[in-house]
Queue: 4 jobs
Job 1
Amino acid sequence: MEPQAREQRPEGFPGQRLVVVPPAIVVAAGRRPVTRDLCITHIGTFAAAAGHFVERPHGTSQHILIACISGAGDCEMGDRKWKVGAGDLLFLPPRERHVYRANPFSPWMIFWIHFRGAQAGDHLANLGVSSTRPVVPVDDPGVLLDAFEDTIRHANHGFGEAALTGLSTAFARLLGLAKVHQVAVGSRSRNAENRLLKVLAMMREDVARPWTLEELARQANLSPPHFTALCRRQTGMPPLSLLIRLRLQRAMDLLQRGNHNVAEAARAVGYEDPFYFSRLFKKHIGLTPSSCMHGP
């Protein structure tokens, strides 16, 4: 993050990934074909970023894309404020004050990209982005999440010319997919989505509860198939898989704080069998619960 940013817990969340392209590499990329047209400078993702808050009084020197996959947040820019929900892409222009934060009751899962380049403005114009219309809704955020994974994969290959070219072209494809899946502003009904967000907030508040698909769907006043399809479209996973993820994230937080042992953390998130919990934790998190105790 840039030094002029005054940020309160901008990072350090479970499941976080972050890649920063060194400034000298960015300067060199600005002289080459393809990368001079569209160049990523920072790329990352947060999963369920509770407490995420960023304020930059003078903005940044790059454009910023924040893609909300699930949950919700909001953004202030100038004297206006925008709500950001699942399936929304938020674009922030360079050198303009902004504030953005996760919703405290249903914190967002986001991926974000800082970028620059001679054709950056053309890509934004193609999406109809402006300082008064910074939010672009899409009908299938899962497609963009897949495109993001393809993009960040190139960042893991180092910062050679080939890797940076792959990074730029993959990002251009992501922006193209945003256009393909863009829906007209005001045309998308938020009713079912809002009900989904409320249910997700209920799940997050009471992860230990033995939720069933039928109960979750009933809380949202939707049929189980409709609820499942909506949840999968907005979060990239079915409801009960999302519940497992929420439980394990809560358990990781409890373990890192050091107030719970493995068995206690397991019970706190709804698992009476600590051995089953440990296997599940290892499978989804990639670490043993005991290795997460007393801090990351």
Job 2
Amino acid sequence: MDTERWQILLKAIDHGSLRAAAEEMGFTVSGISRSVATLEKELGFALLHRAKSGVQPTAECRQLLPSVRELLFAQERLEQTAAKVRGADCGTIVIGTAYNCYYEWVTRMMAAFRTRHPGVVIKIVNGTSSELAEMLLDHRTDFCLISHRDSLPVWLPIRQDELMVLLPKNHPLADRESFPVESLKTEPFIDSYPGMETDITLIFDKLKARPDARYSTMDITATYAMVSAGLGISVNNAINHQGGYPGVVERPMNPHQMMEIGLACGENLAPAAQAFLDFVKERLPE
């Protein structure tokens, strides 16, 4: 089986674009298109919906994707194991983080690890904890610094993080030591990352609370700006605190709401990823 064609297909799906896949893999767009067309001819059904806005997998393709990712993961692990037998040092490691504050730790670990394994390529991706957990299960990442999610293969806890309510400094409850969770249901709310599963939506589900969302944004910095302008309140992880907004005060909820943050990884890691795991186990951030 020609696995390169499957790699091309996954790149096109992950980027949502044949052109972006071509640029990353060093092919022409027509070459990428021919490769996918060959797969479709061999299988007897379409794999991609093609439109001016990009490409999306067909329903039939979606059924194949878990097996395709398993196939390519197994191939990568086989190639790395063979290289290890030959005495070579190679492989690619993908590390995801949902929290910007961990970039410094990740890059320090990358630099130190590369002095021992110079042939290993390391990539960083970001996203919400739920997005990265899904990528981990699909073998699109090897490690993720995220808050805990169910069904994670391997979990190394790092710390407890508190969910904080963001209030305009002139809010009537801003002087209190904590913010009652009951008030989350009635206050005008600014929704960060609407439509996505986040630590905040999980806490609201746990509390059986539906906030009165009046505004939304995909940028936490914009959330702080809107709170500072007095448009409403919001919630953020304490670890993701944004400085520079004197018009915003942060208060814990009453009762306190915590999320466990840790390092997640898969089982049966490829040699490069296993070497990285062994390296960082004794160097986890606080």
Job 3
Amino acid sequence: MPGCRWSYHRLRLGLRTINSKLPTRWSFMPPAVRPANRKPASREERPAPSASPDAPLAPLKARSLKDELASRFEALILSGRFGPGDKLPPERELAESLRVSRPVVHEGIVELAAKGLVRIVPRHGAYVSDYRREGSVELLVSLFNFTNGDQKLTLRLLDHLLEVRILLETETARLAAQRRTGEQLAELERIVAREADMHALPVEEIARIDFDFHHTIALCAQNDVYPLLLNSFRRMYLSVLELFYRDPGVVGPVVGYHKLLLEEIAARDATGARETMAAVLQFGEKKLRAALRKSRGTR
């Protein structure tokens, strides 16, 4: 059909990825999902909900088929299996191939559209979007979670993350010095006190302390958006910090920068806090790139 840029070969390849190692009709479902023909639990068997904080936690819910389908196609798009402008297979064909209902397929595609991964054209189908133009913050989380061994993708995102950190964290430090509360300053002091023994801690714990320091400064800035953005980067942020702190020689300088930042935020020295944050980030980027070159065996 003219205008349909996807091929059946690519479709079979993508669906083979989705259905690999799935021997039965229900193997596409998460293990805890119950087939529709199984008798539902009786009212007596169902735990009663409770609002009491001391009551047992509510039962866990299995991941829905819609979420599973959206997740699998999200991976196919982010990996480049489907590129911008490609047309997704019709909902009917997807439903038959994946052995799920058409409403499940439709809801999954709608979720992809909400993230900016696809564009739905009425009576024509769904087309893969350029996520850089159409994507949302929700997709940003997916990008950082999706590495799948793709070193080029990871390194490109790392470069972009380092650029964003310089832009945002220097301004955040300035605002933190102006807006921090006494309680927030005390929390920052407790984190810096923990850093006194960082040289003796495992790399993973050092990375968590470092993240807590920067996240607390974001909270001191009294801007609700930046702490949420930082949390979105958390997984990749911690992974990068663990690589950075494999060099024990960086611990001392970082602790020194953090102590100076604490003093400037305590003194409400906005200019000094901004300059010190820029210095520690530039130091970190230089050492991190050296660590990355070493890990790849390049100079």
Job 4
Amino acid sequence: MIKLSVVAVVGWVLCFSNAQAQQQNKDSFTIHWTINPSPPFHILKGEYKNLGICDILIDKISKTLPNINHEVRVMPQTRIKYNAMQNQNLCFPCMIKREHSPYFYYSDVTVTHPPLGIILRATLAQRLAEENATYLSFTELASNNKLRFGRPVARRFPPELQEVIDEYQQTPRFFEIAGEDATTRVMKQVSRGRLDYALEYPTILRYYSLSHPVNDLTFLPTEELGYKNVPGAVGCTKNEWGTKAITEINHALKMVLQDEEYQAQQAFWQDISY
């Protein structure tokens, strides 16, 4: 009887342990992070590898939420949007926080980006800008049939600028660049004179100037947006999983945004005194 009782107890303990482990696996939650090569937001190689604006965001959130699984996948921007449209579970950490999105829920603001503007060669800026001008009209640049504009193929901009792009997109002077690291490749084309200007954040120019010290590029805000800062956020698929992911991320952000290392890294990239 005693032997049978011991065997029964051991069997019960093993069954309980297995059931508990299965329940833990069942209850575990995974945030599926997606990133794409787009310095300085995500930097996958070179001197600043893993030190991008949103690389450190993922790192800090992951460390703040140790009881949650974190998976990071690299994919093109077009694939990220397509997967979200197909209701696949994912979070993209480097989105512009818009008033509404049909495919994403947004987190609280993670960073405030300096305003978008025109990046072009300094010699061209001197010819185009009026004396002492501190901005350029994107609408006027787009209507100039002698100037060539370039942008990454999947890139979208605030409505005031996107409407202009949509109007002129089919003209032979508007170019889209696809593939890995398209943002930096656009900068190279402008620097080499194959394109005349691009729309980007000054942080993009900072990264390009750090990695390509010899260049003639400069930045001017647009007349359309002026000096209006742009809020950044994490975007997660607009479904039940995304709701839970955003809840967890917002909880983590309360600590992450106060983290000195995180603040220092954001300040480094937003130092536009190049």
